[in-house]
Structures are given as C-alpha cells and as structure tokens.
Here is the input.
Amino acid sequence: MITCLIDTFFPEVGEAMLKVLDRLGIRVEFPAEQTCCGQPAFNAGLCSEARPLAEHTICTFERLPRSLKTSEVCPVIIPSGSCAVMLRHGYLELFADDPIWLPRARALAARTYEFSQYLVDHLGVTDLGANWPGKLTYHPSCHLLRGLGVDRQPRLLLSQVHGAEVIDLPHPDECCGFGGVFSVEHPELSAEMLKRKIGNLEDTQAPTLVVGDTGCLMHIQGGLKRQGRSQRVVHIAEILASRDSVL
Amino acid sequence: MTPKIFRERIRTSIADEALQAALDGNAERRCQGRITAFASLPDHSQRRQRAHAIRLEVITHLEDYLSRFITQVEANGIRVYRAADATAAINIFLEIASSHNAKLVAKSKSMVSEEINLNHALEAAGLRPVETDLGEYIVQLRGERPSHIITPAVHLRRHEVGALFHEKLGIPYTEDIPVLTDTARQVLREVFLTADIGMSGVNFGVVETGTLCIVTNEGNGRMVTTLPPVHIALMGMERLLPNLDDLALFLSLLPRSATAQKLSVYTNLIHSPRRSGDPEGPQERHLIIVDNGRSRLLSSGLQEALLCIRCGACLNACPVFREIGGHGYVALDGSPAPYPGPIGSVISPGLFGGQAFGHLAQASSLCGACREACPVDIDLPGLLLRVRAGKAPTGTTETSTEAVGIPAPLKTGLKIFRLAAARPRLFGLLQQAAGLGSRLLSPRSNWMRLPAFTGWGYSKDLPRPVLKPFRNRWADLQHESLHEFKKSDPPPVSADAAPPSTTGLKEQFIQELQALGGECLPCTRAQLPVTILSLLRVRGIERLLVDEAGAEVLSASGLELVRTPDPTCRAGLTRATAGLADTGSLLVTGGAGDLLSASLLPETHLAILNISDLHASLPDVLNTRVVRQAPAAVVISGPSRTADIEMTLTIGVHGPGELIVLLVDDFPTL
Here is the structure.
C-alpha cells in the first residue's frame, strides 16, 4: 500500500520501496483503487468519516490475487509506521462492535507489515547492497517504535548500508510533534516538540535524517525548510534503494 | 474546538521560561530515574503484565471486591462510608468532624481530596485544613492546586518558594532548600501535634486483609495517621488489590515509576484504630470510599483508565506535559482539570464529562510515550482516541458527539477529504489539481510558506503536491529484472541481562541501606547498650522514645526512657521485626509493646535488627501473620526525605533525618 502522503507528496519513496522489493525478486501489485487508510479522521476522533475509508481499504486489498505458488493471500507492505498501525490496530478498534467487518479487518491486519519489518522479520534480509556515503542519523517514528515495536529492524538495515556512518540521535524516542491533526490543531505544542527534535539533529552534525514514516518526514523537513537549514530528511526506503551516491 | 482559554494557557506556559526550565528538569530526571530504577527489576515487563491483569480483574468485578473489602475493614474496627459524589463525601467528612468538634485538619496528600475540592469545603465550614506534604503545603500557601500528581510544586523554582515563605511565614528570604524544608518541618510539626483530625488518601486497599496502604517519603503520611485522635482516609473506589502478595507486586512498581525508588521511605500498612493496651494511634479511623463518576466511567469505553495507580510516570514522559505543566490542563470554563497529563486527559473527561474536558484529549500527538511509561500498561493513546471519538460520558443528558475538540472547519475538511478518497478516480483528479494549484501559489519552491493561522504554517513549510502522483507513475515502474535473494538467518536475539550476583543478605542489606543514606552498625547483644549510649552521648541526648525491646536493652543505662509518643524526645529506639536485603528496608510494627512514634517523631531513629530476621525482599514478609495482626505497620527505607523543591533531595522532613540500624546476631528471635 502506498500511503496518501507518499502518493501525493513523496512518490519517490514509493518508487524506492518498489526498487528494493524488485531487487529481492518480489512481484509487487499496486491496486489503483487505494487512496487513504482513514487515519487522519480516526485520529481526530471522527470515526464516521474513518469507517468508509477503512472499508474501502479492506475491500481494495481483499481483491488482490493469491500467490500462484502457495495460494496464500499476498502480504500488504506499507512504508509508513503510522498507517501500518492503523491497519493492524486502528481498524480493530474501529470495527470492534461490528461482526461483519471485524473478521475482515482482522484478516487484513494479519497480513499487513511495515516495510522494514517485512524485510527483516519476514524475509530475513538485512544487507540490500545499498550504498550511501556520508553520515546518517535515525529518528524512530513513534507509531513504528511503540505502535508496532519496530526499532531493531530499521537500525539493522541501516547498519548494513555501505559507506554510511550511522550516528546516534540524542533522545531518539521523543516525538517530533507531528501527530496528524495535532500539528494543525495545536501548532504551538507541535512547534516546541519540533524545535527539540531539530536541536537534537543539529547536535549529530549529520546532514541526513532517516525516518520510517512520511508524516515525520514532511513535518521535520517542513521545519528545516522554514528555518532555512540544509539537512535532508529521507525515508529509509530511499537509503536502501540507493546504489550510487546519486541521491 | 480548542477552547480559547486552553490555547492561551498553552501559549503562556510555553513563554514562561522558569516553568519551562522546571518542566525540562522534571522530564529529564524523572524519566532517566525511572529507567534506572527498573533496571534493578529484571522481570519488570512480566510484572507489568501481571499488574495489568490483577487490576483488570479487580475493576471487572469491582462491586464484589468492594463488598468483601468493606466487610474486612469493618471487621478490623474501621468505620466505612460510601460516597456517591463529591457532596456526599464532603458531608460525611463534615459530620465526623462536627461530632468531634474538630477545627484543625492535618492532611497528607490525596488526589481524591483535590478531585472533590475538599479544602475549599472544609474552609467554608469553618475548619482549617493544612496540607503537610511539602509540595502540597507550598501550593496551598500560594492558593494554587498541585501541578503534578507526585510532585505538586514541580512548576516552581526555589526563589519562588523562598519569596513565598518570606511573605507567608515571616522568615528571612532564602534560596537554601534545606532551610526552607526545615522551616516547613517546624511549622507543620505543630500542626501534626495539635490537629483534631488526620486526613490521608489511600494508595491501595487490600481486600483480603482490609489493609490501607499509604506510601510517603516525608513521613507526613505516617504523622497524620498516627498522631491525631481521629483519622479519616479518602479512597477512590477502584483502588483495590486482592491480597498482600499482590500488594508486594505493586509496591515494586509504584515507587519506581513515581520517584525512581525501590520502595518509598515509608510504606504504611494500617489495619485498625488504637486497641486497648496500645500506646499510640488514633481512637477512631474512618474510610470514605468515593465514587464520584467512577461507576459511570467503569461502564464507558474508558474503563481501562481505572487501572491507574496514580504514579505520575505518564506525566513525566509526556512531551505535551513537558510544555504546559499541570496547570495548563483546563476545563472549558478555565477551571483547572483535577488530574493533569495523559491520564488526566482521559480521567477528567471520564469522570466529569466530555463536554467540559474532552478537548484535553486533542492535546496529544499520540506518541505513546505515556503508555510505554505506564507500570500497569494502560493503553493511553487508545483511550485518548476514544475520548476524541466521543466515548467519554457526556456529563449531561446530551448525546456525545464525535471529534471532541476539533473545530468545525477541520471536521468539514476531513469530511470532504473522505468523500474524495472513497472515489479513487476523483481522488486522482484532485491530486493533480492540487499539484497544479500549488504551483500557482508557490511557483518557484517545492515548499510552500503557509500563514500561521493554518496551524501547519505556524512553524513549518508544506511540500507542494507533485504533478505526477505515485498512482500515475505506477505503469512506468514495472520493467526491472528480478533477482533472487537468499534469506539470511535472523540475527540472534540478545539474551536477557544476567541476574544480579548473589551477595550475602547482610552485605546487600548494608549496601542498600547506605545507598539510602542510612547507617549500619554490626554489634553483639552485649555491646548494644554501650553502642547506643555512645551514639546518644555524641548527640547530647539523654531521654528517648523506646518500645518494649528497646526498654529492655537500656533498662540499666540510666537514660530516661519514654514509652508514649512524646515529641520532645530527640531519639527513638525500636526493634525491627524484619529487614529486607534488596531495598535496605526495615519492617516495624505497631501495637501493644511497640511504639511506631519512636521511628517517626525524633530526629534520630535507632533500630535493632537481628541478622536472622533478614529476608531477601518485601514479598517474603508482607503477607505474614505479624503484619496482618498489627493495628499498623510500616516498612522504612532510609531517612525521611523530600525532593519537592526543584527535585533537590533533602533529608529529614517530618520523619527522622537519621536512621541507624544496629545489626545484631544473637538477639532472641521473635
């Protein structure tokens, strides 16, 4: 699944993920009916608006062809921690009292993976032959870290990137202040949290911050741009897809 | 939408540099402290799951547990009342007070008393309630409410406390924290000794034994439950644990989460009022069990919030609390929320209605740091989402609405987005339109500078939507050759930390006691009188409080031995029933022949501990006959302490500032 933020703002992240999966010999489908998982409305507490999008998403991925070899339903891979949490946990909450949709939501949740989680836990791959010369530092997105418990996987993948020097980000597990509607409804709080995150990034002197969620990417990069800073925020898929120092 | 007053409070908090410094200090030290404290508990994640299951069991069958608890507490001689709401609780309190002609109420910390606004009601009725926890005393003098569940004055710096004490207590201005603490000690000592009623909260009620457990560091929780003739305890109806073994589990979690201690200095276990033959203790104990919205919360979608043990860890971990502090959380009308932080943003709307407090739940990025810190694994982000979704009780007869705290334009925006996103073709067209439109707005840069009122534009730029979204690129992307990758072995999972090396109980006890600021003097029984005499001589002390064992040891010493709670004695000597090696703690019991005041009132507490009474840890001694049968007992972990002013550790608040354990190997066993 390509999230609506990637689709609309950062298609290169989706392309990078495809490149990586393709190199691993995995055939990827992109059901064009997909749009948004419904997370923004769900997080705002607007469940009546989240439900139609969740139902739409469940239907979209139920229609996927089964694998020819194993006849298993193919996994749904999402390059975003928070959208993966939405499919894996949010839908179960959304349909908790719905005997029709709950089993369908459960079936989708069971085959949904975040990208780095899929690579490391499911495929057992850590070295993708990626090449990224220079210093990197990693920001563990809250939903990825705490919602899915995924932290070891992206760090392991980054540690295998050729040429990259991975520097520890101070206070890594502090939220960057995005939080979906929170960043719009509480701009003052969001700004203070962002300020701290950017301060920690400055301390590392790394020119590149790696994230696993385009929500954080858009937020932190937006703050850096506003402050006229030169650091780049890059999705982990882009790092893993890079072969030469072209990016 | 976000009430204006809440937004203003957020802005003024962020702009307040002293507050920001105080909150930064709190967040950094408390979080690191908690992590360090849990490092000494290798199986803490299993304990957390067990704790969750136990609390869930209790609240699922709450009425059943409550009725058994009440039966047991009454059998122990404590009078029990159930209050449906704040007014009922206050009336019960006032009735007890008037039947004793009471004027002065010495209060130890109780969040329930804040919740029902007890002080205000007592003052209106002509009583004088005095907070005795240092932090609570400070905020009471300032006419404020606590800004943190555990550290009520966390929002203040030392100069503010210095100015306050100068103004209200007439002492010369000082920023010296020990001097400030000692001033409070002296003022409040008088309150303890003259109060008509001692009032406390309850950390845990134990169903099987009817135990009221109260943890305290300064010793005020012991004072108010030991010295005044009447003790009234206020308890939220959900604060139950099935038995003393469960209590031991929770006592391994609560102090670590709250104050990074293995145990609080005083773990008070209360069973009954003074019995005939007891030298001390209140003649009457009353327990008021408060509902005040809890039953309604229990039957709502937010019931998991009732698992909370009020440790405050989620406040310390929360990045929003770190910006606005406890006073930042306000109701629609600007009145302070009774409970701050992430748990408060669930409990406040849960108890008092989504209309008044629901907007607080929007002040969270749902980062989950609160859940991670919670010792009973409450799914706080999940509960905040439920408050947002309108699942908090409304507090009125109106039906709840969705998206609590979200302004109408944003709701409309989300609705329009949904209408489009449910139609993929339309969605694609709108994406392209947005890509084109944004180029009109921002022709040169990929990042657009939006105005501040949009929210997003307040501190960051927005990327331009691309002209060719991913869905339009998909077709171009399907031509690359396929490679087969061999699956590599998953990396080994790192082994759990090795268990701590087993040093002897004695060595471990001495080490832990010293770490708490206590002293240990090993000696023989024959050497005891001489050792004690020399300790007292250097301190110039000739009369002291003693229990029966202490009196026996010093019978021929020529010292004046006092067997009743006399506040003028500067030292106290008691026998410790047991010692706990892993926390350096002492178990001291009350009752006939004992004297709990001897370990509480004087500056120096001397305790005799027999080596054969040393145990590995709290669970070994908590669920025993000697504890169950004591009218009151206490587990003492070091000298009395506080960190209520700027989190600066100060020794000797209300209880003894000095704890000396005389470790003997040949005392007759109990």
Q: What stands out?
A: Chain A touches chain B through 82 residues (CB under 8 Å). Residues 187-204 of chain A form the longest helix (18 residues).
